[in-house]
Write a structure and sequence with these properties.
By secondary structure, the chain is of the alpha/beta class. The protein has one domain (19-282): TIM Barrel. It is built from 10 helices and 10 strands. The chain has helices at residues 3-10, 38-47, 62-72, 94-113, 131-143, 146-152, 178-187, 207-214, 243-252, 268-282, and strands at 23-27, 53-57, 76-81, 118-121, 155-159, 192-197, 218-223, 225-227, 232-234, 257-261. It has an 8-stranded parallel beta sheet with strand order 1-10-7-6-5-4-3-2. It has a two-stranded antiparallel sheet with strand order 8-9. Helix 3 links the parallel strand 2 and strand 3. Helix 2 crosses helix 3 (62-72) and helix 8 runs parallel beside helix 9. The longest helix is centred in the middle third of the chain and has 20 residues, at 94-113. The radius of gyration is 19 Å and the shape is globular.
Length: 287
């Protein structure tokens, strides 16, 4: 037996049996529908049981965000690129792709400025060209932001969305995460991973199996519910998504980190409902 295999056998970390203490709950800033200042909104998220907030970047009021963090003690864990649906890394126009790259870089800078660790990115759209063209444009353009992400220590977190890219939009429920794995591995940087949205592709495959496939590539989670029976997104915990298998898969890959709600928000009562729904699907107590 080699030294490496002996170490892995004798000193393997015990398999976790619960997600308790392993997940931190966050939500998109736009979901906080309470009146008042940014500080008031952060306080509402905190009162609802969230551990952080995701803001939109670039062009955020960094000074105001830092003040809200300071006053409430609630961190910004990351950001969402504001224009990635319209100004795309896969656009046929080189000028548009250059603008998308500039926007991503400025989002990385704003996120770093407030202490965040991820920038959520929609990679592009499959309708921008052939699969080969769209793939190459996205890989080439996003790769140009990796040096800055490395310098700042902020991960570019690709989200799996309904963008006709890396899955078959008209396909069945037997699809896998193969293309997402291939994409992350092609860029091959610790500063590019997945902000895996648990609800977005339940229509197309087993989310537990996608989590198992993606494994270490998942740096953060997004979540919402989905009903295959009704073919619609739902509140977290409603619908027919197999949350039991999701929990099992997250434990199998030893996931620990941030989970971001991405559903319809509202007032404090609604935020508390979302927080409680997250506790329920992840099996958390006293969160």
């Amino acid at each position: 037996m080699t030294g490496a295999s002996l170490f892995s056998t004798a000193h393997a970390a015990p398999q976790p049996t619960t997600l308790q203490g392993r997940l931190y709950k966050t939500l998109k800033l736009g979901m906080i529908g309470v009146e008042g200042s940014l500080i008031d909104r952060f306080n509402a998220a905190k009162a609802a049981g969230f551990h952080g907030v995701e803001f939109s970047a670039p062009n955020a009021d960094v000074v105001a965000v830092k003040e809200a963090i300071q006053e409430t003690g609630l961190p910004v864990d990351g950001s969402v690129v504001t224009t990635h649906w319209k100004v795309r890394h896969t656009d046929p126009s080189a000028a548009v792709r250059a603008k998308a790259l500039d926007t991503l870089k400025r989002a990385l800078e704003d996120t770093h400025a407030v202490g965040g660790n991820t920038v959520l990115l929609v990679g592009g759209h499959g309708n921008d060209g052939t699969p080969e063209e769209v793939w190459k444009r996205c890989v080439d353009n996003v790769s140009l932001a990796i040096p800055l992400a490395t310098q700042l220590g902020v991960v570019i977190a690709l989200e799996n969305v309904w963008n006709h890219f890396m899955y078959d939009h008209q396909g069945d429920r037997q699809q896998t995460a193969d293309k997402y794995v291939e994409f992350v591995d092609e860029i091959n940087s610790p500063w590019l991973g997945m902000q895996f949205d648990i609800g977005n592709h339940w229509k197309y495959g087993s989310m537990g199996d996608w989590i198992r496939q993606l494994g270490r590539r998942i740096v953060k989670l997004d979540l919402k519910g989905f009903s295959r029976a009704k073919d619609t997104f739902t509140k977290i915990g409603e619908g027919d998504l197999d949350w039991a298998d999701v929990r099992k898969a997250l434990l199998e890959i030893n996931f620990s980190g941030w989970a971001a709600a991405e559903v319809k928000g509202g007032d404090l009562a609604r935020l508390k409902e979302i927080s409680a729904n997250m506790d329920q699907v992840f099996g958390l107590t006293n969160a």
